[in-house]
Amino acid sequence: MSHLMSELSAYRIQKPYSQLQSAQILFASGKYDDSLGRSYYAMFTAARALLALRQLDSKKHSGVISLFNRHFVKTGIIGVAAGRDLGNARTKRESSDYGDYYLATKEEALDQLEAAQRFLPNHDRPRYPSATRASPRHHPVSSPFPLPATKA
Predict the structure, then answer these.
(1) Looking at the domain assignment, is residue 83 inside a domain?
(2) Which of 40, 117, 131, 151 has a CB 3.0–4.6 Å from the CB of 93, allowing a cystine?
């Protein structure tokens, strides 16, 4: 693996945390359609970070998801649920962004937030603001994503 690809992956893995935080803020504000989009992009950007470690990328979302599934899910490096969550998140985001008369529900937005949190590394997870569930469903998994650098 080239040093540049490693740097690109490290750079890319920083952004999903900000996107997830934005999704949570949007969720708390009742902007469920927009929260779906940010949650999806947190997952998508994290997948691209992982692909960069293998010097892979695509200009299309479908290409990124296909490469992610081929090189990480089908090989058993990442669980099948992560690949399914990423694909489902894309579908929901596209429906929310482009579908006429589609309004995301609070439950859909919360499910997408949970999927994004499962997709990212388990440490330092931001918590859901004003979620209606007593306890969000967390499925602890070991994540292969590089951990973001912490500031001292």
Answers:
(1) yes
(2) 40
